[in-house]
Translocation/assembly module TamB
Amino acid sequence: MAETETTAPARPRWMAVAKWAGIAVASLLLLLLLVVLGLNTAPGRRFLVDRVAGFETESGMRVGIGRIDGSLYGRMILRSVELRDTQGAFARAGEITVNWRPFAYLGSSKVDVRELLSPEIRLLRMPALKPVAPDPDAPILPDIDVAIGKVAIDRIVIEPPVTGKLHVARLAGSADIASGRARMTLDARTLKAAGAAGGDVLTLRLDAMPAANRLLIDAALVAPKGGLVDSYAALGKPLSIKLAGQGDWAAWNGTLTGRAGDAPLADIRLTARDGRFTLKGDAVPGTLYAGPAERLTAPKLALDIAATLGERRADLRFAARSDALAVDGSGLVDLGQNRFGNLKIAAKLLTPGAIAENVRGRDVAFSATIDGPFATPTIAYDLSATSIGFGTMAVEGLRAQGRATIDAKRILIPVSATARRVSGLNAAAGGLLTGLKIDGDLAWSDGRLMSDNLRLRSSQIDATALILVDPAKGRYTGAIKGRVNDYRIDGLGRISLTTDAKLVPGPKGGFGIQGVVRVLTRSLDNATLRDTLGGNAVTTARFGFDENGTASLTGLRLTAPAFTITGGSGSYNIDTGRIALNARAMSKLYGPIAVTASGTLERPLVRLRAARPGFGVDLRDVEAELRGVPTGYAVRAKGVSAYGPLDADLLVRYGRGPMGLDIRKATFAGIDLSGSLTQTRQGPFAGTLTVAGSGLNGSAVLAAAGADQRVDLDVKAAAARIPGPVPIVIGAGTITARAVLASSGPSINGRFTLQDVRQGENMINRAQGRIAYDKGRGTVALIADGRSGVPFDVQMQASLAPDRVVANAKGRANGIAFSLAAPAVATKAGADWTLQPATLVVPQGKVELSGTYGRATALKARLANMDVSIVQAFMPGLGLGGRATGTIDYSQPAGATVPAVRARLDIARFTRTAAYVVSAPVDIALLGTLGEGGGEMRALIRRGGGIVGRMQARLVPLAEGATLSERLFAAPLSGGIRYNGPAEVLWTLTGIGGQTVSGPVAVGADFGGRLDRPTLTGVVRANALRYQNDTYGTVISDLAIDGRFTQSSLILTKLTGKAGAGSLSASGTIGLDAASGFPSDLKAELRRAQLARSDALGATVSGTIAITNSKAAGALIKGDLTIPEARYQIIRQGAAEVPELTGIRRRTDQPVKPGAAQDGGVPSDWKLDIRIRADNKLFVSGMGLEAEWATDLRVGGTATDPRVTGTLQVVRGTYSFAGRRFDLDEDGEVRFQGGPITDPQLDLSADTTVEGVTATINIGGRAMNPQVTFTSTPNLPQDEVLSRLLFGSSVTSLSPTQAIQLAAALNSLRGSGGGLNPLGKLRSASGIDRLRVLGADKTAGRGTALAAGQYISNDIYVEIITDARGFTATQLEIALSKALSILSQTGSFGGSNVGLRYSKDY
């Protein structure tokens, strides 16, 4: 039988897959079950506690749990619970009971908490969490149900760090929020406890179920002053709010009322109709909030709001009104989808001042449409204003539009704005902002507003603005990136500005600004600033503003011809108010300057140091300090000057009460200023400032004249002496004035009188003036006479009006009368003043002047046949002659840096007169021009119809430079001179009076180089010149010169001449390069040269002199001279002695270092090294002295302050005194010890014999204070010795007149002229030129007599002599010349005679 095989059917493959999938799912479920069950065990709960402790949220919060008891899926107790943030624990609870059903959320999206209980929770402080961006997709009302059966926290302890006080609260409540219903109860209270006030109560009942037509709303808040709510919100007043109503879902009516303290907070009616809610009523936010919120909602805010709720969406319509603000809006807010649906808002600012006190505006409106997701909506806005202003600034015709977009990190606001103009700014910025356009973007991120691409455009500017605003920290800053070319600022000038700035990220995630700025001045209209800087300036700096609120300035540099800031930096922190500044500068006028500042803006400390600011008084070593003090600012300053020390101590009172100024001490030039000023309610200051010291006394009384400042000044001078290098002495004077400084113009009424005012060689015998001026109209007058180089006497007066000035003047200068032919008239048209043609008349001719001043300056002068001797009114002794005719035209348009000048002058028969000769007349024609292209000067000299000289100098083109003088001195020089004629013409150009050079001279030279570094190529020759000095009688004849110009120097090959019977010769080089300091090297040899030959002085000199000058070694005169013979006659005039005051200089001059040359100038002071020897034959005569001297002296020091060492020794001589002849002792000498040359040491004596007594005169001490004593053999008192010398008899036998004369003589010897001097007093009172007492003359029959003499004219002298016995004689002397006189004498006792006297020294 055969076997049959059977095969089982195959199982489908999917069954195997399904099997294993089921096994896998079952395994995962089993594993999940085991995990869930395992977590609910003790080890699982510990594992969960550990995992929770290690978890940290994105905001930085962590939860710490000690342990968990109970079931994780039911009722459990959390023990030792602690909440931590970035700074540690901020809340703790010993026990929290949670009874919940977590699996309910998995089944029905429901949070089911049956109980949440705790006996005590402690809030230690407010949490410090990291900022976390919200999830833009998370709905505000999520689609979940919440059921909280019971919440009960018995004690919530709120520690003082939270609100500043301890609070203890209790909380109980429940909640059930599900689809279609909302039930909630809340009862929260603060409890009274030790240190805790309690009393706050918050209750809430809500039951809303539309399906059941149920709606219940009931809420109340009671918050007493000092409670939890008040402490947290810092209200400072109790607060109560109540919400209550009646009805159901279909129709519910309620009210919302509230009070803050005694003031109403809200009174609003509420309605609900099937999901449509309305709110109408008034709210008063100003009850709680001050500032802009209060002002914008005052006196109350009327609200009208309607919202239809459904499907977690609200369809809104709202309106709000106050006196300052109106807002309307409508649109959709979807809380489920987190979206805006075309929410439109329109607002009008009715009272712009409500934003801030200094804000004003007109027709200010804003509208916006918001659409899109809450997190990233788009906002289309439109802002417009007819005018809106801040302070004095106003933006007119403003319109701004844009469409802002918002994302999770920032809000981007495109800006497209226009403004007709921005007014109220200073002149610097106002002109830039006309027709302004702004385009760019603003970005809001992390609470900051930023922009780096706001482009600003107007008719004057094209730049990009950078803005960085942090409202939370109160930081507002910005910068400009761009260029402003050639912009004019009124009162300053024209500038060019370039800035470059950028936003930079900071290390803390914020942003800052960094940039550079460069300012270049093109021209400066402000004269003070222009003089200080010396011309145009370039300023550069780096600036920054970092994320910490610190503004900084570094690398500050300013470069100008006369002023340089070599380094500067500073910072200001907005949060702390700290400031720091450090700057260093160098000024040619004021020297080095350093400024430092520290402290805060409220209490700054500023220090300034200036080594040599000068200010015209040689002020040095100035230190000033400004320090903030509780009452204001204390200012101290000290320094030294040529007028004595400067010391100031001031207090500026500021902050408490009215502003004031207390001048505790202010001393300068020996004058003390003190007083106190206080600002009045009207604004001006009131108080008295007193002036005392240096012979000045007075006061300045300040007071209010309405809203204007009034000043009454009354100062008197009596024998006043203002110290200084050249002291100012005022014999007597008064100044009285009253001024009112009104906004419409000042009003001044005053007068002054001055007598005997002296400064150096300048003197005002008398001066008086007055002014009466009121708001642009008034009169001024001045009368003065004195001497300033030449005598003058002037009278001036003027009538002033806002658009017209009429002035007249007349007087005399050095004996030359001058006057205006008619009053000069200046009129104003717009900004320009015009001087109508005015004629100045002098005996030598006329000058016609006219011109304009204002936006452009122009001056025209016309000379018609003017005698050039008029120059001697200002430079006496030149001896000029000739007639000048010509024109001078000067004009400088506004903005021009180089004036246009054209001068044409023709001088006919020009001469120069010396003591005995008059130069041959020549005709001179001059033409000079100056303009932007350069300058040129041409001269032509004619003599006898032939041309003897030509000169041409060109400066073309002008060089670059900050000032006109710099451009001229740096310009290329070309041209030349050809002259073959009288030397007097060329010598006149030196301006030296009392000296002449005459004779023919030939000069031929070509100019080159620059004006400050000129080069000359050519020759100068002469062989018959004559030099004459009228003062000393010096004559050098047959003067021959042979020299050649080689680039920058004159090589003097030969200079020879005859000086009396002797001769002199010289050779060397003279530098012509100012930049090199005029280097020179000259050597001269004198061979018995007679250098002085006058009636009073004659001298013959032999020896050598070397004159050198260089920048390195300075200027030096060195020599070795021998004086074979010299004669000097002492001539003492009867005029009062006036000490010579030295040191006169201009305010802007800097002190000259001894022996140094000014930079690029002729040496101002020469060093001396000269030896002078004379073995004998130094003859001195006059004043009764006939003596011969010998000397060996060395002269050092400088030309302005020579220092002499050595002696003058008596060889032989006699001295006549009181008709007696004294023989000089040969051991007498005058010793020079290196001090002032006028004050040597004296050691002289002379003796004679009278009436058997040998009398000796001893002269000791110093020349400025000699000590004269009389001794005798035998020894007698000084009055007895003097009596015998004067009258030949003992003092006991003197007549009363002789006794007076003796007393005067003794007093003069003892007291330097002080004390009783009756003869001197009588002579001064009577005006007699000479008054003396004569001894008896028996041959003439005259006893002791009185002689009085008077000069009838410069050449006629009359003297009358009389005694007590009736003797009378008259003497008459007529001087025919310096040497020849006629003498006549007539006496009462008979006898008359006439004689001829010739007297001359040989």
